[in-house]
Design goal:
The structure is a homodimer.
Chain A (H helix, E strand, L loop, with lengths): L1 E5 L8 H13 L4 E6 L1 H8 L9 E5 L10 H7 L4 H10 L5 E4 L3 H12 L9 E3 L1 E2 L6 E4 L9 H17 L7 E5 L10 H11 L4 E6 L11 E3 L2 H27 L2 H9 L1 H10 L8 E4 L4 E4 L6 H16 L2 H23 L1
Parallel strand pairs in A: 1-2, 1-4, 2-3, 4-12, 7-10, 8-9, 8-10
Antiparallel strand pairs in A: 5-11, 6-7, 11-12
Chain lengths: ~350, ~350
C-alpha cells in the first residue's frame, strides 16, 4: 500500500509527521509513504533517523495551507501546497490513501473536489471514532455538511456500519440517531424523517439517542447532520477540558489536595489514556473515492503512526469497495420502493 | 407576591416540594404560596412542619401529568391536574408566577396555551442558567423550539440579556451565537442569517461561540435553536456524569486510589457544589406573559426554595414589563428598517 502524507499539516509539522512515518514503516510491512511538503525541511527531519530509504520518498511542495484560509479558495489557488499535491497522488492512483493534520475545511474541500465522491454517495461525511466509557463510538457527520437531508443520514449510517464492522470488527454494529428525545415523534423535521428511513433500512437501528447517553459509548454509530455532530464533538472536548481544569485548580489549591492528587496520579493517567484520541488514528472522511484520513491538528508521531495503521486496515479490508457495493444495493432498494409507490 | 406551585411535579413530589415551600416562606418576606395537587397528600406533608398557615394554601387537583404523556394532549385532557390548575392561577392573575418540576413538555405547552405569549414574542424559549468555570451562563433555547427562524434567536438574545441584567445583575451582558466556527460565514443558514441580525441589534454581541468554549462561562447569553441548545445541555450533563463515573471507578479500583480519593473529598465536594444546578433555581420559560419557572425533575427542597427565590427576583425586577418594553422598541426598529428598505 502507498500512503500520501501531507508533511506540512498540523501543529507539529513537519517534525512529528516525519517521525510518525519513520516509526510506521518500521512497524508495518508492505507500505510505502510519500511525504509532500518543503523538501529541505522534510529531508532534514528524515536525516535524523535510520530507516529504509526505499520506503519513504518526498515530493516537494512550496506552499502551505493555513487553517484560517477559506478552504475552497485555498484548494483552488494553492496548487503547489503539500495538501493539494498529496490529494493529487490519490486522484492519480499513485497513492491509495492520504493523511493530513492540517486545515479540516481545506482537507474536506480538497478531498471532495480532487479525489471525488463515490458514485451514489450524495454527501461524504467526517466520521471520527471517539472514546466512550464502555466502548468507542463514531459520530457521523461532525462538520462536512452543516445542512443535511434524511437520505444523507441514511448513507452516513450505512458507511459508519461498514467502518465499524470491517475496521473495529464489531458484528452487526448498532446505529442510533442523535435526537433531543427518545420517542419517534421527537426532534426536528430532519430527525423525524430520518427515523422512518432508518427503521426501514435493515440496519441494526436502536432508535433515537439523547446526547446525554453518547459519552457512555453503548451505541456504535451515531448519525446526525454536521452542525449537530460538530456541537457534540466540541461539547465533549470542552466539558472534559473544563472539568479537568477545575479539578486541577482544586487539587493544587491545598496541601491535602496535592497529596491526594499525587496518589491519584495513576488513576488520572489511566483516564487520560482511555480518552486519548491519538489511539484511534484520525477521522475518516467517508464517501470519497479514496482513503482520506484527517488527523487531529495537534497530532504527535504516535497519532500519525496510528492514522497510518488505520489507512492500512482500511485498505486491507477493502472498505471503499464495500461502501460501493452497499450503496448500489441500498439505491436498488430505494428504487424498488419508489416504483412500488408509483 | 403570590406563587403557584405544582405540588405533584418532579421525582420527589410532594414531600420535597412542600418542604421547599415551607422553607421559602420562612426565608422570604411578602410571599404567599398556593400549592396545587392531591390535597390529602399535601396537607399530610404540611402538617409535619410549623409554619405560618396564612402563607401557604392548597388547591385540590385530582390528576397528575406523567412525563411520558404527549404534552399537548395531557394539557387539553387533564383539566384537573396539578399543573393545569397552577397555570390557570397565573392566567386568572390569582398568582404572579408558577413553578413546576414535572414534565418539561407539558409545562411549556401549558404555559403557551394557558398563560399565553407576550405580544411581539413569536416563540417563548426555555432558558436555564448553567454553572460555567468562570461564571454562570445561559443557553436559550434548550428545547421549546426544535426549528427556529433568525428573528426568534434575536428575541431570545433580547430576553436573555434582560434576565442577566436584572436577575444576575450583570451590566451589559455579552451575547454569543452558538456555532460550529468562529468566522461570520460559518454554520448553517440559520446561524448565518442570525449573525447579521445580532450584529445590527445594538446588543453586546461577541460573535460566534464554538461549543468547546461554552463550559468556560466567559459569555453570558448563548443563543441557538432548541435542538442545538438541548444537545449542548445534554452533552454537558452527559460528559460530566461519564467522567465522574470513570473517575470513581479508577479511585475505588485500588487502595492507593481510595486513599487519594479520601484526601480529595473536599475538592470533589467543591466541584460538585460549583456545578450544582440546584443553586440556580430553575429554567425560566421566557416570552410567556407570566413568571414560569421549570425546576429540574430531580429537585429537592433546596432547589425548590431557590426556584421560589428566582420567581421573587423576577417579580421584583419587573422582568415581564422590561421584556414587553424592549420588544416594542425592537419591533419599532425593525419596522423602521423595513420602511427604509421600501
Amino acid at each position: 500500500m502507498i500512503i500520501a502524507v501531507d508533511g506540512m499539516g498540523g501543529d507539529f509539522a513537519p517534525s512529528e509527521v516525519v517521525l510518525g512515518c519513520v516509526e510506521a514503516i518500521k512497524e508495518f510491512n508492505d507500505i510505502k509513504i510519500i511525504i509532500t511538503g518543503n523538501e529541505e525541511l522534510i529531508l532534514k527531519e528524515l536525516h535524523k533517523y535510520k530507516y529504509d530509504t526505499n520506503k519513504i520518498s518526498v515530493i516537494d511542495a512550496k506552499e502551505v495551507i493555513d487553517p484560517n484560509e477559506p478552504p475552497v479558495m485555498a484548494i483552488r489557488r494553492k496548487k503547489d501546497s503539500s495538501l493539494v499535491k498529496a490529494l493529487n497522488l490519490v486522484k492519480q492512483k499513485e497513492a491509495h490513501g492520504i493523511i493530513s493534520a492540517g486545515s479540516t475545511g481545506a482537507f474536506m474541500a480538497g478531498a471532495l473536489f480532487i479525489v471525488g465522491r463515490i458514485k451514489g454517495i450524495d454527501r461524504p461525511a467526517l466520521a471520527p471514532v471517539m472514546p466512550g466509557k464502555n466502548a468507542p463510538f463514531m459520530v457521523i457527520d461532525v462538520g462536512a455538511n452543516a445542512e443535511c437531508k434524511p437520505k444523507n443520514l441514511l448513507q452516513f449510517a450505512l458507511m459508519g456500519k461498514i467502518y465499524f464492522e470491517k475496521i473495529l470488527k464489531v458484528e452487526n454494529p448498532s446505529v442510533g440517531l442523535i435526537n433531543i428525545g427518545t420517542e419517534e415523534e421527537k426532534g426536528n423535521e430532519l430527525t423525524k424523517a430520518t427515523y422512518s428511513l432508518l427503521k426501514e433500512s435493515g440496519l441494526n437501528f436502536v432508535g433515537n439517542i439523547e446526547p446525554r447517553e453518547i459519552p457512555k459509548g453503548d451505541v456504535n454509530v451515531l448519525v446526525c447532520d454536521g452542525f449537530t455532530g460538530n456541537t457534540v464533538l466540541k461539547m465533549f472536548e470542552g466539558t472534559a477540558a473544563t472539568l479537568f481544569d477545575v479539578l486541577k485548580d482544586e487539587i493544587t489549591g491545598s496541601t491535602l489536595g496535592k497529596v491526594g492528587g499525587l496518589l491519584l496520579k495513576p488513576a488520572f493517567k489511566n483516564i487520560k489514556k482511555k480518552f486519548n484520541y491519538k489511539e484511534y488514528g484520525g477521522a475518516a472522511f467517508l464517501g470519497v473515492d479514496g482513503i482520506c484520513v484527517k488527523a487531529h491538528g495537534s497530532s504527535d508521531s504516535l497519532a500519525f503512526k496510528n492514522a497510518i495503521k488505520q489507512c492500512i486496515i482500511f485498505h486491507n479490508n477493502n472498505i471503499l469497495n464495500n461502501i460501493k457495493e452497499e450503496i448500489i444495493k441500498s439505491n436498488h432498494i430505494q428504487n424498488i420502493d419508489a416504483m412500488d409507490i408509483i
